[in-house]
Amino acid sequence: EKQLEFGYEQAQREVTGRTYALVEGVGGLDWGEVKQLFRDTADYSSMDIWNRIEKTTNPILTDAVRNGWSVKETMKTLDGALLRYDEEYGAPWLETVSRVNLMRAFNEGRSQAFEDNDEEIAAYQYSAILDGRTTPICISLDQLVFSKQDLRKYTPPLHFNCRSLITAILTGEPHTISDMPSTEQDGGSFLQMNCL
User: 180 phi and psi, to 5 degrees?
Assistant: First the structure.
């Protein structure tokens, strides 16, 4: 909730120069809807891990039954196979999931503030942090200007570890709409660029 509020308040200051307190929620979302969005994301992440573990363990358990392995033998084989999940889904994975969800909340707050001030906004500009970790998707979108109708299409995070954000171009500021790359939504979560 704090990231959502912070993103909303920051975007409000950028657009209007004023700060608004959030009372009932953000824009058209109430806090219950916001919390449900994050629960759904957490459920999706948990199911992804569970499905991967299940794909690893089912063949081992099937082999154990077929070949008459002892419990000790089965547990040793499972332990060896699952060791990679501790490495793969340990602290770095949790950090990635946390970063994506915090950036999603922050950018959702910004998008809601922009939508609440629609009449003051002419277009949007994608802004990526450019360094050695910037992905080809964010490099290709950096500084591109797009129409108000495409706000939700290009709102970060667009991939894991995305650190980008959208800035508003206010009515009266000079701008030219860019030729935006074609996109396809992949499961409604992350953007896949056809141009790369």
Answer: -80, 145
Question: How do beta strands 121-127 and 165-170 pair?
Answer: antiparallel
Close Cβ partners of 37 (under 8 Å, ≥ 6 residues apart): 29, 104, 108
Residue closest to 44 by CA, chosen among 2, 85, 99, 101: 101
Low-confidence ranges of the chain (pLDDT < 50): 19-27, 185-190, 192-196
Take residue 114 and report the two structure tokens written for it. Answer: 């922009």
The candidate with the shortest Cα–Cα distance to 172, out of 127, 120, 125, is 120
CB 141 within 8 A of CB 100: no
Q: Is the pTM of this model over 0.70?
A: no
d(CA 109, CA 115): 10
